[in-house]
Amino acid sequence: MRRMSVAFVGAVCACAVLSAAGRTVKVSDFGYDPEDSTRFLRQALESGAEKIILDRQAGPWVTLPLKMRSNTELVFEPGVELLAKRGAYKALRDYLLELPYCTNVTIRGGAGATMRMWKKDYQGPDYVHGEWRYALRIFHCENVLVEGLTIVESGGDGIGVTGKNITIRKCVCDRNHRQGISVFSVENLLIEDCVLSNTSGTAPQSGIDFEPDHPNEILKNVVMRNCLSVNNLGDGYQFYLGQLNSSSGDVSVTLENCRSVGNSSGLWLDLGVGRHHAAPPKGIIRCVNCTFERSKHAGVSIHGKPAGSVFAALENCSIVNAATNGTSSALSIGSASKPDQPVTDDIRFDNLTVRLDDGRAWLACKRSGLTPEKVGNITGTARIVRSGGTEETVTFDAAWADKWMKPKVDKPLPPRRNMTKETWARATVLDRAPGQAVELSRIWFPYGAKYVFYAPAKGRVALTGRTRPSKARDADRYGPGSLKGAVKINAVGGKRKYVCDAPGKDGGAIAVELPAAGFYELAAKVSGGDFALESACVPVAVDTRGGNLTMLFDGGKDATFWFDAPASGTVAMVRGGTYSGSCANVALTDADGQPAGQVTADGDWRAVYAPDGKAVGLWKMVFSKIKGKPYSFYALDMASQPGLFFLSPEKTWRFPENNRVSPY
After folding, report:
1. Helix, strand, or coil here: 20?
2. pTM confidence score
3. Using alpha carbons only, what angle is made at residue 379 by residues 373 and 385, rounded to the nearest 5 degrees?
4. What is the DSSP string of 207-249?
């Protein structure tokens, strides 16, 4: 009876404080528990009070996920820590503090006010790995101010932003798992006097990433001012706008007086424009009085940005001692990740200064794609200052473009074949050993594998695979992981996915019961590791239809593929050294077993042609080491073909369309 009376008195006191304080409450008015204060925090946040003070206690405020309401101010007293309860946050989308569809919200911290989670726990074996356990999620909100907080060790982004009229000021986002801040869709965003530091865990691992998820999202009137992005495993300031197109609103982003120090790249700008993106977004991204210092790779990297797309302007900016890895350049323009990606264009450098040591490359300017367009609008000047005291001035104009960015082909690639259900239905399966497992050409995929295979009947299909830890050169950007991964299988064109665990480092079967005969897509991704199929009792092909895949050699062994070729024309595109500067010889053998040419695959894309008059049928492609050259990453793609490379000549299929002569 006594306990009931105390509880009742406490409730009455809380109500009285709420009334007497003029709609201001302290969370401790509702209670405090050093082990778990969730119920008190939720009561305060749901009380209807206009101002809620998270007051200082003997220890942190330990809590399960929280949500705020509209028309609320949350004030952290100096030194207060809001701490995620350890062992909780098991769901991938558990956020420490979420603002869902809120308006008129202020979150303000005094000196030392902190929001903290347990990143290392979420990366461990007791949690399903993901990138969404944000510390602060601002989701479709309007009129929000976040000020004076230190946000550390989240399981995803320190802050994730979607909304309108949002200000983030004097905040520190440190040691978060995916990004310091991610900006998805926003109008009128000011990020000012913030520090974004030490991000590591899962890609991209940048200080801040501007990355809309859908074409209907926007980046409008965004300003970052007086911010520092430092020591992130990813980039300092990253833009990936591959999901936007011409129907999206014009992009307008300004970085003003911002610094990047010790990141992978200082500024990374990529519109992600390739074969799937014929109508890119428009607008402008400006960097004004910004400095990009001591980046591991390029200080500024701009690519995937064709003429008529979002304009890039660097005004009075500096690149200082970039490319500390010793192999990159201070400024990188035009490096294409896809062979038919348009040339990078529409850039202005107003008084760019590049400071670097003698002997270091200040510029990497590539036409890595295979398109015939010329650069038309890269303008401005750069002053190159070397440590030995020499200086030079470079003018970006038509003459410079003709010298540095010449087209590599004089005609466009043939269009990729449109694969329909009818196309797949017309395929002829060619299996020389039905029901028998064959060894596959083992190809390692460091960032996700994609295959297509044919199941002759419903039931279990015998596929085996293996994982291995990523090498150290990958771990510095993508994190150590724990070799946990999943295999997802779905019928080609279908939506239902059949999921199982990826085989471990000792190898094993992929055990999924399939409902019917037909073609299936298989995707595998391993956290902190590489994946490869090793054997199959059915036809299997590497699937590059969604764009080229990054692959790794199996030790010092050659990498061998087979593909169904037309009578003539472009049969494949190859690229080596996608990250490491490596290169390899690529030799072709035609369907009659005769040599059909050779090309060197280096950091640029190379087209591989079938000579006129050669027989249609199964061709072989072999990547092999060049003496004295590095040998690791490479990529494949196809033109006028469906982008499928078989891993055994014993088990394949072909489409009747390949009996036709290609457009070349």
Report:
1. helix
2. 0.81
3. 120
4. EEEE--SSTT--EEEEEEES-EEES-SS-SEEEE-TT--TTSP
